[in-house]
Amino acid sequence: MPRYFDLSSSKPQLGGLPDVPLGGTRAQAVHRLQIGIAGVVLMVLLVGLASLVQDRAREVDASSVPSAAATTEPSAAPTQADPLVEAGVVPDLPAERAPTPAQNPAVVPEQGSGNAPSTAE
């Protein structure tokens, strides 16, 4: 059953329903249908194109030589250089590390502290 929309009156009357349904005219419905079908076809084409690209990539990976011979001779590895030293921005570090003071263990409430005044009399 089609629904109708009428702004001319607050209540539709039994014999006075408008001729235009909520969905619009037949041409508008066909146009919406065409746009929807075109969207679905476009998505199918995009998925097909992505699948084609993926298949080609797999073929190239399978046909490539995994360990191809090097075309140049390997050179000796360069020595490790410290760029901060070369730039002169390294801070002066002492020759030996200063000993860190030993940390006293934390006082646990169950143990209490040996020099705390007692409140019991």
What does the model show?
It is a single chain. The mean pLDDT is 75. The chain is built from 2 helices and no strands. The chain has helices at 26-63, 83-87. By secondary structure, it is mostly helical.
- Which regions are unreliable across 5 or more consecutive residues at pLDDT < 50? none
Instruction: Bin the strand percentage.
Output: under 5%
Mean pLDDT: 75
Number of helices: 2
The percent range for helix content is: 25-40%
Question: Structural class, judged by helices and strands?
Answer: mainly alpha
Termini Cα gap? 94 Å
User: What is the total tally of β strands?
Assistant: 0
Q: What is the compact description of this entry?
A:
The chain has 121 residues and is mainly alpha-helical.
Keywords:
flat, 2 helices, mainly alpha, about 120 residues
SSE blueprint and pairings:
Layout: H1 26-63, H2 83-87
